Amino acid sequence: MTEKTRRRASSKGKTLDLIRSAGPISRVELAELTGLTQATISTVVRELLADGVISETGRGESTGGKPRMRLEINPASRLAIGVHVGQDYITYVVADLGGTVVGRTRVDGPGDASPITIVGRMSDDIESLIIGLDLDRASIVGMGLAIPGPVDRENGTVRGVPSLAGWSDFPIRKALATSTGLQCEFDNDATAAAIGEYWLGATEGYGTYASVYMGSGIGSGIVIDGTIYHGVSSNVGEIGHTSVDARGLVCPCGNIGCLEMYAGPRAVVEKAADAVANGTLDIPLTGRISVDFAAIGSAAEKGDGAARALIEESAEYLASALVSMVNLLDLQLIVLAGSAFATAGSTYVQIISRILAERTLARGIHGVEVRMSVNGNDAAALGAATLVLQDRLSPRSLRSVTFA
Amino acid sequence: MTEKTRRRASSKGKTLDLIRSAGPISRVELAELTGLTQATISTVVRELLADGVISETGRGESTGGKPRMRLEINPASRLAIGVHVGQDYITYVVADLGGTVVGRTRVDGPGDASPITIVGRMSDDIESLIIGLDLDRASIVGMGLAIPGPVDRENGTVRGVPSLAGWSDFPIRKALATSTGLQCEFDNDATAAAIGEYWLGATEGYGTYASVYMGSGIGSGIVIDGTIYHGVSSNVGEIGHTSVDARGLVCPCGNIGCLEMYAGPRAVVEKAADAVANGTLDIPLTGRISVDFAAIGSAAEKGDGAARALIEESAEYLASALVSMVNLLDLQLIVLAGSAFATAGSTYVQIISRILAERTLARGIHGVEVRMSVNGNDAAALGAATLVLQDRLSPRSLRSVTFA
DNA sequence: CCGGCTTACTTCACTCACTTTATTAAGCCG
DNA sequence: CGGCTTAATAAAGTGAGTGAAGTAAGCCGG
How is domain A77-196+380-393 classified at the architecture level of CATH? Predict the structure, then answer.
């Protein structure tokens, strides 16, 4: 990425975004969609062609004159590595420009190991991934890191993530960049998932939407007019700590009636444990939240009434919080991502859709679509990878413009 | 407003904003604050001087070299008329560039009159206001209209505001523009109040914040990085219809446990009526919500225990919804506006501040300021006026940039 | 099969909002 | 008063865009 790439960044990124998402497309159409003139598009496209990120792939039908040249993205021309550090696993993916996962691995989570150890392990894992897949190092534009909790993007540190206790204030971003030799972006996993969704075209047509990421906790990422919203301190989208009962349970976070206490995997598993003790539910519980939650989900999908009741309750609480969020932000699309939706996702989609259609204030004006992430279990890791692609190739959409 | 004004609009608006809010300020300081060069500021300032909206008002101290020229806004150079159509009253204000209210009137609310009648009445009222104050028509840049409920800004219509039943789909904006001969902006009252707060410098230093407007209902306006957030259909900020109890009371809006059912003026007055019936509270109730709510508020401020309990309960519920909002949007400032805060505002500020300090997720990183609007009862009308000032003079900050 | 028509794309001169560099203006201080 | 410092303006340059004219490539009708 030379100086040339950074200049004209906004139009170039916007144009590339369109070529990516609107499939094979001609210069004329690009001009119409971007609002730029054909002349400008002509030069922008020339640069993109020179960069090798797009190519001309034949001509279209003639409509009476010279036929349009079809432009398509060159997926393999740029690669990014995405890493999601979950509670139980660390997931690695290699994604190309088209959002295709070129390779992936999953290893055990960080546990109690020191951040220095983990950084070493991670760069080794990345190194073997690159070698194993025989990737062209020149095409790797960087790596992204997604973390389940608040990040300090300015300083490149994690702070106060319960599952990453020893990481507070460790300069993880810089450490990873040094040890891998790659530029390193990082963000909250829900935010990463939201960007990933955008990048993969699943949000096509919607510039404003939210992702809900349920892993061990519940987070969300908010995209406004194509720009990820970071708030004043990147502590954004904590839908898991919105109150669904002002006089309800006290959450360890200090708030009262937090959604996570009712709808989160831990809450569901705890209720399931009670039900098992009562004999109303028959599922072998292991004590590992993610495993047990998946077991409840699959029992529910198979028709176990008690299990289904638990999932439904969780979905209803989540839906309630989402109605509030939609009423506050006037959203039209919500994308569900994260491992917790892996087994019973469709039930969640169904119930949330229904409740939103019944209860949002603007329901007479527009509905709210609820979709499962197209990225499934890898949403956060893939999102992390797209963080880099987005930053390197369409900077305009990633960083919010700060006023004065 | 010739072509000249529209060009360079963004820098010019930004600069004017700074001159307005940062008081007398020199070109050098403007350059530092905007990030533009001194040369650019020089030309922008020249244009603003030519427009007559600012003037040079003496020189500052020398710091070893040529002393800086102090630039100040020329408040009287531009005026805007703001109208708030509340349930009980229609409020008119004339505001100048400095946010000073040059004149105001308040008349009875629209009641059941047809929108055409109201438009006639309103343009008459505006006309007499202009004549009564002997305003220079050339300096009036337009009028703004604030309405308690969702608006369709694209088509300039109101839709589904309970207190304005007959107004749905009536082209109120166009009608007013024609009958008054003024350009007409309009928006939700909470949003207008939020912009008003920004314009008046009360949010100084905070580009991202929310206003809570409590009149008959509870709404809010959200400003992100200096840009008002409108959502996909301007149905934004409906904090009154966020759920504070997922298994609570059914709201007429169709949602369950809406904040308004617990904390809104109507809810408080109804509880007060019960208390009066029980003999635990002794306040004469009139049946008019706004009057009765004010009476409860002033009783509470005077130390009546039962009244205070009612206000505290309302504040606690509102605070609960605000904790959720802060956790979702990572805000640093919340401004309370609207007639309902007129009597017991300080109690609300106190309770909400305390609860936010105890319960928000990011409380270790940054606190949340809670302030009463500096505009008191006129916040929405004044906000409506600033809608116009903002649009004519700092277009960049008002309209959100749409992506693609 | 050739010229005219249509449509796609490129070239080129210009604009506009800015920047960088240099110059002038205006104060202070020894 | 001349040297120093700082403020403001002037002049030339830059980069992303525009608009208008030119070129390329297909179709179509005689």
Answer: 2-Layer Sandwich (3.30)
Chain B CA closest to residue A204: B404
B27 touches strand D (CB under 7 A): yes
Best of B230, B330, B334, B355 to disrupt the A interface (most A CBs within 10 Å) is: B330
CA B360 to chain centre: 25
Residue A180 buriedness (CB in 10 A; 0-12 / 13-18 / 19+) = buried
Contacts of B287 (CB under 8 A, 6+ apart): none
SS3 A147: strand
pLDDT in tens, chain B (404 residues): 323 333 466 788 888 888 888 878 989 988 988 888 889 989 889 888 888 899 888 887 777 788 888 998 999 999 999 999 988 889 999 999 888 899 999 999 888 888 899 999 999 999 999 999 999 999 999 999 999 888 888 888 887 777 777 888 899 999 999 999 999 998 989 999 998 888 776 777 787 899 999 988 999 999 887 778 888 888 899 999 999 999 999 999 999 999 999 999 999 999 999 999 999 999 999 988 989 999 999 999 999 999 999 999 999 999 999 999 999 999 999 999 999 999 999 999 999 999 999 999 989 888 999 999 988 788 999 999 998 888 777 654 333 332 22
Hey, where are the domains in chain B?
3-73, 78-196+380-398, 203-372
Could you tell me how many helices (H) and strands (E) chain B has, helices first? 14, 14
- What whole-number distance in Å separates Cα of residue B240 and Cα of residue B229? 17
Nucleotides, chain D, CB distance < 7 Å: 4-12, 15-21, 24-27
Among A213, A233, A85, residue whose Cα is nearest residue A147: A85
Residue closest to C26, CA→C1'?
B66
> Taking Cα atoms as reference points, which of A266, A85, A236, A232 lies closest to residue A166?
A85
Query: What is the count of residue pairs from A and B with beta carbons less than 8 Å apart?
Result: 192
* Cβ pair A400:B225 closer than 8 A: yes
Give the C-alpha separation, A343 to A350, whole Å: 14
Question: Do the Cβ atoms of A67 and A61 come closer than 8 Å?
Answer: yes
Three-state SS for A144? strand
The contacts of residue A33 (CB under 8 Å, 6+ apart) are: A18, A22, B404
Rounded distance between C-alpha atoms, residue A314 and residue A293, angstroms: 11
Find all residues with CB under 8 Å of A73, minimum gap 6, and list them: A16, A19, A20, A53, A54, A97, A98
Q: Please check whether the two domains, A3-73 and A203-372, share a CATH topology.
A: no
The third-level CATH classification (topology) of the domain covering B3-73 is: Arc Repressor Mutant, subunit A (1.10.10)
List the B39 CA – D2 C1' distance (angstroms).
Answer: 28
Q: How far apart are CA A231 and CA B332, in angstroms?
A: 9
Calculate the angstrom distance between C1' of C21 and CA of B38.
13
**Contact between chains at A242 and B365 (C-beta distance less than 8 A):** no
CATH number of B78-196+380-398: 3.30.420.40
Query: Residue B339 carries which side chain, given as an amino acid letter?
Result: S
B272: its two tokens: 């007060």
Find where tokens 């109120």 sit: B172
Å between A184 CA and nearest CA of chain B: 24
Nearest residue for C25, CA–C1':
B66
Burial A249-262 (b: 16+ CB within 10 A, else e): eebebbbbbbbbbb
Domain B203-372 has CATH 3.30.230.10: no
CA dist., res. A104 & res. A125, Å (int) = 11
Q: Do the Cβ atoms of B308 and B300 come closer than 8 Å?
A: yes
A6 and B CB contact within 8 Å: no
Report CA torsion sign: B396, B397, B400, B404.
positive
Please identify among residues 296-355 of chain B the ones whose CB lies closer than 8 Å to any CB of chain A: 316-317, 320-321, 323-325, 327-332
